[in-house]
Amino acid sequence: MLLVMASTASQQQVAGLATAAGNGKAAAAPVQDAAAAAQPAAGYKEPPKEILDIVDAPPQPGLTFSPDRSKILQLSRPPSLPPIFDISRPELKLAGIRIDAEQFSRSRMSYYTGLSIVPSDTLVPAPPEAMMEVTGYPAGAWLNYVTWSPDGTYIAFTTRSPGGPGDPPRGPLQLWLADAATGKARPLLGARRLNTVFHSYSWLDDNTLVAATVPAGCSAPPSRPPVPAGPRIQDNSSGKKSQNRTWTDLLKDEHDGEVFEYYGTSELVLLDVRQESSEGEVIAPPRMYTEVVSSPDSQFVLACWLSRPFSTAVPAGRFPVTLQLWDRKGTPIRTIASLPLAEDIPIAFNSCRTGPRGLSWRDDKPAELCWIEAQDGGDPDVAVSPRDIVYTLDAAAAAAAAINGGDELAPSVLATTDLRCGGVSWCDDDLALLYESWWKTRRSVVYTMAPGRREEGKAVLFDRSFEDVYSDPGSPLTRRTSSGTYILAKVDGKRELLMSGTGASPEGNRPFLDLFDLDTKEARRLWQSSPPYLESVGAIMSDFNHDAPVSLDGLQLLLSRESAKEPPQTYLISFSGPDAASSSEQRITDFPHPYPQLKDMQKEVLRYKRSDGVDLTGTLYLPPGYDAARDGPLPTILWAYPREYKSKEAAGQMRRSPHQFSGIGSLSPTLWLARGYAVLDGPSIPVVAEGDEEPNDTYVEQLTASAEAAVKELVSRGVTDPARVSVGGHSYGAFMAANLLAHCPELFAAGIARSGAYNRTLTPFGFQSEERTLWQAPDTYAKMSPFMMADKIKKPLLLIHGEEDNNTGTFPLQSERFFNALKGHGAPARVVLLPHEGHGYRARESVLHTLYEQDQWLERHAGYGRTDPGYVTSSGEADSASSLSE
Fold first, then answer.
1. Is 120 annotated as catalytic?
2. Where is there biased composition of kind Polar residues (predicted)?
3. 579 belongs to the catalytic site
4. pLDDT digit string (tens) for 178-219?
5. Is 839 a catalytic residue?
6. What is the pLDDT of residues 685-700, one digit of tens each?
7. Is the pTM of this model over 0.90?
8. Which of 731, 785, 815, 846 is catalytic?
9. CATH class of the domain whose range is 3-55+595-862
10. Which of 200, 309, 820, 852 is 20 to 30 A off residue 662, Cα-Cα?
């Protein structure tokens, strides 16, 4: 049942409700929507048709190229949002994971509804005669885990029943295989079914899969005893310090642990997909396998699994884990690590688990493992050098040592870092890039090194602040190898890389492609996006000859192009000449505009200053056909999300493009352009702390200063009616919206806060970018909490929350208690709790009702007064008022 509670204080006076909007179509709008008038007074409701039509716009398919780039797999998405019955199914909430017990899978998975194959030189969406549909699997099935085989011969995917009325019974996912040449699919593994709670399946080579299956002979799940065996006890008699943020869905008792172990346990099956009737070969005993990854040469496997003891204090990602090296048949060679339960990782940024982390295969070697180990106990407050060590281990050599019965082969030190290591990008024995960074200083360092000559050490390539987007040199492009891995793309075998970046500048983002010389550290621009388009390059497409080096002459890349009025389309750009001096393009997609009714909406990137001199930006949207001189100022929605910075210069940098297409999500504030509103989307709300300052110590002051600057700019342009400005946000943006109504109510007529946290004493061990605890900064926690200001909030505030919110810190209790506090002080407020919804809302019924609530709140308090007579208020009855109180 949808739960709505409202507290109606005296209505705030809203001036100018009959102001014209957009192209005049909404001028002198009626105070009651004709479409809304017929809606019932209870249950799920829908927003006005002009919003509904945009939400129901057909989605674009997903696209993925075959490994040899000759084919495109088109993945059809469902025509609308998932139905409420799909997210209403029972789910288990265990160790921070939500499990669909019927399917032995994660719950609430998205899905595809169909697969089709088209030649890569065919424009997408392709006509029916050019598409080869993948057939043979059950009609109407939902599809997941879609992958190409390494050589592109096959396409693997899973099927499951929707479980709706008239559908087959639900059960564990079934693995299928389609022939990419014919599109015909067949089931794999016989009667076996997958367990995808942690791992689904992975390719070992072109013809071999290893799949995580429900163990054969699996008994019934553990049932909870009707009578408790005793009380629930947590103990810290040792006095050990263990601070954790407010995780959700944790284990509560031993029974929870048994159920978690039951549904998380799988059996690994090795399968040759060429054998049509085979059920595969079990290669390892049942365990809670979380990852099974083949070496690039397919001769070894890295297997990871969870084990007891479990914890009621932390989620599964911190449970004990074993990392083991096997041969391809599942025979253990060596245990790389047995990591204990990690309940005491510090809450500060750059904290990490002790022992090997980031374990992976080198992309440029047949079978060499790489991992990182912290030398500071995972605690960034410990001063030590080096802070991290990067190790490598050759799997073949380790296997030989194990067979010969000698001493275990010791790993080799690849490099050390004094900041927190972020990993390695591989190329060959002559080149790799090593990354390290530090949150407190926002410092990021990239090194070059020669893995084959480790004694030479590393050399600094870039040393910069990762907040400074203007100095970003870009990221190196990679190329595909014959093993299916991706390595740094050297150009013509030289020490030159292709670097792609966003090209941020005071004029806006202009993505680029550079040829970067690693020795001189000089970049030569090969290509850059040009107005009126926003373009960016993607994957290298001319790397299908794995033995040939990437060359500028003949270089092919994917290119995305969009404009303010044209949706993103994909092209193939081909360069020619030794200096890539000329280029040609082939169009790959031709998707229609998803919402042509808003094609002519007006968009402008605004630049303005805060009172302390910090430069701010925001994207202003105006309805199609709107003319300020003719139509006058509009009701305006300000929708934002605060962010922390270490410098005013970084906070004021431009991070957007005026030429970007404005995609409208199903809960986007820009939906209200169709209702005649102006929208300021994503205005800068920077919280700056330079040096050793803490940003949240002046959070309220900086928040209100940013809001004041935004509203002042909008009003000065003549597009915004200052009496009809509303503020809204989701999650930390909701926290912001509530704070703004508390601290600068003169700026806003109403607020909308979705899935927020409002009482920071309920998140005592840090939140967002706050690393201090409540006991270290009690005044800051209290001052930032709008819950503590409930007696000061007088403007209407709409609270919306998913009843099953699983985000850290944003329990539904936050909205419920905040509403009670507001109601207790006579504030005009309303709380809407969405059944079965998490931190983000997915079901069609939930999304549409959220939009309905937001629309009615805006119309009643900061809009045109087009109210629904079926709107339920605090009396529990439909509101039959035909106009707003004056």
1. no
2. 234-244
3. no
4. 999 999 999 999 999 999 999 999 999 999 999 999 999 889
5. yes
6. 999 998 889 999 999 9
7. yes
8. 731
9. alpha beta
10. 852
